Amino acid sequence: MMEQIAFYSMAGLAVVSALAVVTLRNTVHCALFLGLSLAGVAGIFGVLGADFLFASQILIYVGGIAVLMIFAVMLMGRASDLTLRQVNQEWLAALLVCAITAAGLLRGAKAYLGSVAAGAPAPSTKPLGRLMLGDYVLPFELISLVLTAALLGAIFFTRKETLPSGGGK
Amino acid sequence: MTLAHYIALGAVLFVIGIFGALTRRSVIGILMSIELMFNAANINLAAFNRYLHPEGVAGQAFALFIMTVAAAEVVVGLALVLAIYRNWDKTYMENINLLKG
Amino acid sequence: MEFPLLSLITFIPLAGALAVLCLPKDSRRAIEAAALAASAVSFALSVWLYFAFDRSTAAMQFVERHAWIAADAVKVDYYLGVDGLSAPLVILTTLMSLIALIASLGIKERFKEYCFWFLILEVGMLGVFESLDFFLFYVFWEITLVPMYFLIGIWGGPQKEYAAIKFFLYTLAGSVFMLLGILALYFKADPHTFDMLALMKIHGTLSFRFQVLAFLAFYFGFAIKVPAFPFHTWLPLAHVEAPTAISVILAAVLLKMGVYGILRVNYCMLPLGFEWFLPILVLIAVINIVYGALCAMAQNDMKKMVAYSSINHMGYCLLAIAGVSATGFSGAAFQMINHGIITGALFLLVGVVYDRAHTRDIGAFGGLAAKVPVFAGLMSLSCFASLGLPGMAGFISEFLCFLGAFPRWKIYTAVSVLGVIITAAFFLRMIEKVFLGPLNKRWADLPDMNTRELVSVVPLAILMVALGIWPKWALDMMNTTMVSLAGLFK
Amino acid sequence: MMIENVWLVPLLPLAASLVILFGGREREDSPMPFVGIAAMAASLYISLAVIFDAATGAAALPFEKEWLWYSFAANLGGQPSIFEMRAGVLIDGAAAVMLGVVCLVSLLVQIYSLGYMHGDRKFKRYFAYISFFTASMLGLVVSNNLIVVFACWELVGVSSYLLIGFWFEKEAPPYAAKKAFITTKLGDLGFFLALLLIFTYAGSYNLVRLKETVEMGYLPPMVLTLIGLGLLCGAAGKSAQAPLFIWLPDAMEGPTPVSALIHAATMVAAGIYLVARCYFFFLASPIAMETVAWAGLITAFLAGSMALVPYDIKRVLAFSTVSQLGFMMCALGVGGYTAGLFHLTTHAFFKALLFLGAGSVIHAVHTNDMRSMGGLSKRMPWTFLTMTVGCLALAGIPPFAGFFSKDQILEKVFEHSPVMFAVLVFTACLTAFYTFRMLFLTFWGDGRDHHRVDHAEESGAVMTVPLMILAALSLVSGWALEHGHAFASFVGSGGAAGHAAEAAGHAAAAGHAINPMVLAAGVTAGACFFIALAYSLYAGRDFSRAQRLKSLFQPVFDLLEKRYGFDAFFLGLVDLADRIAVLCRWVDIEVIDKVFVDGWGLLCRVAAEISHLFDALFVDQAVDGCGYVSRDIAGRGLRSLIARGQVQEYMLYLAVGVSLFAILK
Amino acid sequence: MLNLALLKSEIVLGALALGLLAADLLLPEGRKRALYGLALLACGISLFLTGSALLPAPGVFGAGVPLPLPTGGGPAAALGAGVGTLWSVDPFSLFLKMVVLGSTVLALLLTMDDSSIPDSEAGSFSCLLLLSAVGMMLLVSATDLLLIFVSLELVSIASFILVGYERRNPKSNEGSLKYFIFGAFSSAVMAYGISLFYGATGATSLVAAKPQGAMALMGLLFILVGFGFKAAIAPMHFWVPDAYEGAPTPVTAYLSVAPKLAAMGALARLLTALVPAGSMDLTLLLSLLCGLTMTWGNLVALFQRNIKRLLAYSSIAQAGYIMMGIVTGDAMGLQGILIYSFVYVAMNIGAFALAVALAADRSDALDPYDLDSFDGLSSRSLPAALAMTLFLLSLAGIPPLAGFIGKFYLIGSAVGTAHYGLAIVAVLNSVVSVYYYMSVCYRMFFTAPRKGARVPRFGAGIYAAAALALAVTLFFGVFPHRLAVWAQFSAKFLP
């Protein structure tokens, strides 16, 4: 029962906030709701007993990404953003597509109606650590390269043009 | 709670993400929607791991990777948007329209 | 290792092309010398081939075979050889190339590039006739396209670009289907092979449906080249726009590749498909003959007229093939040679008049015979040869064509004999309008042919008479092969 | 034995023609013609020696000798094998006679031409052509192989083309030459098909072997009939039988000696000769025979009637030739092998004579129009005299040559069918009429065009001597050859098919044969009557009576002058062909090209447009955005509201695809 | 069983890429170009390490003796190949790694002479280039969806940045942004797909997976989207023209080749591993996509007036040809993928090299990459015109150039596996493609040069790249045996 309450509240939080993210006009609000939605997802992780994931979600997503988004929005926001429609004119077609996809996916999900969790969730932090430094060491290291590349890109794009660089147009 | 509930939740989030990605007019809005999609995947992974394949933590590990990758993408994306904003003060997708076929 | 005669014949022009490429643009003499030498040596070697050719066997001769690609999935040999069907065509190719090259010495612009492309073209043409490996065959087949594109497109007439790309795309469209056919055959053979001789032996294992489809794929490729109705419309355009020497090559050699292919591939490898297609083939042949001739009759442009007459003449070849008899095959094979010589000469001569008068409009002339008797004589001779006058080469082959087709297709043959008279009509009309009657004052000081032009045309004129009087020279090369060809499926 | 060397007969003139054509420069006084004349003389010598040998029995006829020409792969008996095409000579009686006639006439014509063509710019070339012409004809005569016969047949056509169009600087000759070539070529189609049939069913082109095959009855009757008709078709073209005679009157555009050669010995004789040479085919097919007879009959009558009206001296002669050829054809058709060939021979002499005589006249008065002549008998006595002989021969007045040969034909025809006989007799009378109409118009009375006639002079010896020789021959040949059935036995000595059949026919027809004397007398009387009629109409100063007659029968005259509409018919045919050709050209450019070439391109283009449009919708945005970014940011802000987001459209599109697939699976 | 030593070439390359960053800091401003040299050196080392693994392979570099068939770990192990937890180093991946490295080398050579990238950025640029190369090399080795996902992301992120490298060029920015949005979207879809796949099979490994059921299928479809995006398969190609036109040309050249080929290789591995094992048949879908890709790319290319866009669309079509090998999935098709990848690198980058060389003269023009740069090239520089012609003809698949050999294999496999429709579509497409390739030749040979056009100058880098590409295009067209044997050897190691 507890599980159900937790699930439905968290799921509701995630879904409603997500809807707010994609429908609201004010981008700042959107970003805030994104944080909420991500937090809802973190709650779901908690319900699932994925403790490390729960923590990471809070740390990385809610604490990192969502905040970054809010910063970005604030940085680049304009007055008009608050009043302009934030949805383009294809929303109806998009809605249709989404409905179809949702129908397909939910139909697929129905197949799992019968499966229930076996046993209590085991703490996952330790096995995750083993995995990351064991079998998954290569992707783990590779992710560092991904982050390096992203960093390089971020530096490159956000750096102010300082010197008139040679040869550039 | 059955697995179906989680999968359905993932599906709904995913679809909302798609909807947002398809309809938001600002780049940041699109980025946010995409984050929702990533999260949907993560829910799936965690749920599957818990319900169907509880013997390991591969699903959760994957979710971690996805999280990191998403973070990296957000970083690059925001930097890019910032650069463009600085250059021309444009964050709306449809305004970026220089290239023609 | 035997003396690689065929390789030398084929690749000496390539060496020439590379040599030309290395020479500086301004040293025209050297370029001329290199190009002519390459072509001439190739021709000389093919003359040797003529004398060394064993006329008593239908087997492939001068065979060269080396592994080229020896992977599991694709086994390709560098496999050359000639028999009585291809050897005369090889000789024709080297001869016409040399002659066309001589005729193109008058080209003033971008001569170096011209020689380069021309020699590459020669390599491709020779290779097509010599290849016994399908892969190699296709490679050479395609090699001919590119130089032709440039030769028409750079040195052609007013609509040259359109003609060039039309030629390229259209023949390419045909040849890619041929590629599909080649591959289909390849996979049907067990073990998979591109060896054309081996593929001739597997038809027993091929289903009727397969043969029909493969036939159509190949036919599409070859028919465009022939060109068979209704795939012929690229030809007049290409001919009209191409420079003289290239028209010569186009008519004399390139069209033969189609007929050669139909004989070598469609007939030898896909007998059931061939049999199934025969009624259509003969119909197409008749249309080619009669319709081609009629179209030629309505032309005012000399070159276009000759081009359509080519369509008519290739119709004879198709008709002969449709006869499925040794006689027909001989006729077709011989007709290819003769058409090459005769139409080559005609295009050269049309080029001669165009160079001087800058028009090819039949109506613009009149009475030239009095002014340029040598030209008029050679032109009339070629026209008469082309309309199948006995004593000239065309007659024997046309006759053999009809003779070959007649036992099987009496009515069709009878109808296509009409083509002969239409041909006569338009050639004579052309002669009448251009050479006879009162001299059109506009051409009062038209010069007669110069030495270069004579050197290029006279050998052909001699050949067309010589082969008409003494066809043995050519037919003996073919006979054994034709007998064995006709006996393949008895 | 001279007969061994008979292959030289055609080759000598051929060599001569090449020598003349390529040797020396084109000069008005080139000595080259003598090469031709010498070669011709040598050929004549050989021919005469052959005839002599054969007549004396020193050489056995038929004589055959052949060599390998070429070989080709052929399916004989269903089995592919190498067929050897052999070519050589086959001399039987008819061939021997023809050799003599052709050589002789040609020699005389060449000598005559020395005078006639004197001063022409293309003097040398003319003789080259003539030699070539003769060579072709001789080749046709001697060859034992039908392919060679056909080849020579066509070469005859070409040389006639060259000769008729000899004065190509003028308008008319080239046209006439082309007409002659094409018309005969039309007939050749039949010949060609016959050749195809022959090889397909008999597997050989050797005349001797073919004869054996046919006589053994190996060929189905239907095929034989078709072969016969095909050959007839060819012969009709060359020998100007109805309806293919239209070329012959136009062929008068050539130099007159050429006309003489064409009409006497070479070209038109070829058709008759072909039928005679391939007589075994016709004998095997009654339908073919009958067709030959009727074709000949109709031609004889039509041409004879058409000869009544023209004023061009050569045209009259031309029509008369056609008519006479009809006689011969008719004779062959009714089984009169000997008679036909006999008439061919005698006709060669007197027709050559008439043409050369006419040439002499034309040479003198520089016109063909007989209305401008008249009274030339005084100015050109030799010509007049010889031409009178010719006319008498043509009209069939005894004892001139034509009488004997025509008599034989009429006898034969009577045996075959009285109706045909009646028509032929009437035609023979017409012959007498138009012949003498011509003679009277030309020579009688006073000169109508003094300007021309008064300056007319008798031609030189080089022209008159051939006339005299021919006149002598016209006078005696009939009688001499008829005497003791010399001609018949000689022609038959080769065991020619026709002769044997004729013998059989004689026996069968003995019942209703006509009395030769009665026939001769009747026909002669009729001819004389018509000559008298001609005299009354045309011998006077003017021809008012003729005019009155004409106005009386105006429609008939019109019909005759229009040549029964045959010309118009063929012109219409040509016109039709032209229209079809133009239609074809249009179809080719507008339909075939569009459908099979440009159509593909168009299809491709449309597909490309569609996909491009699609891409353009997303990629292009149809907004000329280039450069706006830096300039017009504020304004864009509003306008962008109605613009669309492309990247998202891409994704939308993608999502549609994926979701649809998700549903479908 | 980590076997990380098998990946020494990737590890070394990655390390050297980071080393470049360090070197960037050390070098003075004016000397940054030397970093290109260092990057080339890094590629060279990696290439050597990769190649040395192949050295024992008989019939590839040595004499043409029959190849030992791969049985278990035997000969493969002898080749320095082997399997790690998530990856497999086998001749198949080695082949594609060499292709990737080769294209990186060529792209670096082009970069050296291209003015669009400021010298001061040489360090980060070449670092990113090498990082993406590392990503691709791992991508073609990966046998687990995790590694595939992560390496694909590395490639993507590096590419986003590379495309936007002309920071002040609006086109570059725009291209990069579009590329990014679309890339992120498809990554998310792919991630979701992987999650579904994981649910259905319980693992992310390709080796053990037995995908069954609707969820697995949907998962696979979503995964395909990710690959399709990377390999620019229609209809996931829309980013291509904009990104290609906006990117600095060497990057365009690089992107049109390497990521595409790597993704194709990985896709081939994925599908050969999964599809025969499961009960689902993706052939129809794949062949539809394949046909669509070819046709779309070619048809739209007909309209392009900009050489970069033209080559961009043509590269979409080329991806379609390569995909044929995946659709058929037989030995010949897989070999075709390899052979075509190899030659495609040479001919496509060769064409780009000439485009770069010509654009260098047109800095004044509104669009230096307009097709009219090629006007009258034959009279300005016949060798350049001929080289370009050969590249284009090779792209069109005209023998005896290398492109034909590849196309022959691919079409051959389509015919051999009875995909006749696909084969017909492919050959018709190559006819269509000839039209626009020839339109470039038309400009080079049939038109007069623009006023003031000069004889194009070739920098050493471009010259080397073009010469190398030309040599490969010609040599392997005429003597394809070695390449064929090598590809055959390599393709045998796929499951």
Protein model, in words:
The complex is a heteropentamer of chains A (about 170), B (about 100), C (about 500), D (about 675) and E (about 500). Chain A has helices at about 1-25, 25-50, 50-75, 90-110, 125-135, 135-160. With about 170 residues, chain A is mainly alpha-helical. In chain A, helix 1 (about 1-25) packs antiparallel against helix 2 (about 25-50) and helix 2 runs antiparallel to helix 3. In chain A, about 40% of the residues are buried. Chain C has a domain at about 280-490. Chain C is about 75% helix and about 5% strand. In chain C, strand 1 and strand 2 form a beta hairpin. With about 675 residues, chain D is mainly alpha-helical. In chain D, helix 14 runs antiparallel to helix 19, helix 15 (about 335-365) packs antiparallel against helix 21 and helix 19 (about 420-445) runs parallel beside helix 24 (about 515-540). The longest helix of chain D is centred in the C-terminal third of the chain and has 55 residues, at about 565-620. The radius of gyration of chain D is 34 Å and the shape is globular. Chain E has about 500 residues and is an all-alpha fold. Chain E has one domain (about 1-490). A two-stranded antiparallel ribbon of chain E has the order 1-2. In chain E, a hairpin with a 4-residue loop joins strand 1 and strand 2. In chain E, helix 1 packs antiparallel against helix 5 and helix 8 (about 215-230) packs antiparallel against helix 11 (about 260-275). Chain E is globular and about 65 Å long.
Short structural description:
The complex is a heteropentamer of chains A (169), B (101), C (490), D (665) and E (495). By secondary structure, chain A is an all-alpha fold. Chain A has helices spanning 2-23, 27-48, 51-76, 91-110, 125-133, 137-158.
Keywords, separated by commas or semicolons:
heteropentamer, D: 665 residues, mainly alpha, 30 helices, 2 strands, E: 495 residues, two-stranded antiparallel ribbon, 20 helices, 71% helix, 1% strand, globular
Topology:
The complex is a heteropentamer of chains A (169), B (101), C (490), D (665) and E (495).
Chain A lengths: L1 H22 L3 H22 L2 H26 L14 H20 L14 H9 L3 H22 L11
Helix pairs in contact in A: 1-2, 2-3
Chain C lengths: L4 H18 L5 H25 L8 E10 L4 E8 L3 H18 L7 H20 L3 H10 L1 H11 L4 H29 L7 H4 L8 H18 L8 H8 L2 H26 L1 H27 L4 H21 L3 H32 L10 H4 L1 H14 L6 H13 L4 H26 L15 H19 L2 H15 L4
Antiparallel strand pairs in C: 1-2
Helix pairs in contact in C: 1-2, 1-4, 2-3, 2-4, 3-4, 3-11, 3-14, 3-19, 4-5, 4-6, 5-7, 6-7, 7-9, 7-10, 9-11, 9-12, 10-11, 10-13, 11-13, 11-14, 12-13, 12-18, 13-14, 13-17, 13-18, 14-16, 14-17, 14-19, 14-20, 16-18, 16-19, 17-19
Chain D lengths: L7 H15 L10 H24 L6 E14 L2 E13 L1 H24 L6 H20 L3 H19 L7 H31 L4 H9 L5 H18 L8 H4 L5 H9 L2 H11 L1 H5 L2 H21 L6 H21 L3 H29 L10 H4 L1 H15 L5 H16 L1 H26 L6 H4 L7 H22 L3 H7 L4 H13 L6 H23 L5 H9 L1 H8 L4 H55 L7 H4 L1 H7 L6 H19 L1
Antiparallel strand pairs in D: 1-2
Helix pairs in contact in D: 1-2, 1-4, 2-3, 2-4, 3-4, 3-10, 3-15, 3-21, 4-5, 5-6, 6-8, 8-11, 8-13, 10-15, 11-14, 11-15, 13-14, 13-19, 14-15, 14-18, 14-19, 15-17, 15-18, 15-21, 15-22, 17-19, 17-21, 18-19, 18-21, 18-24, 19-24
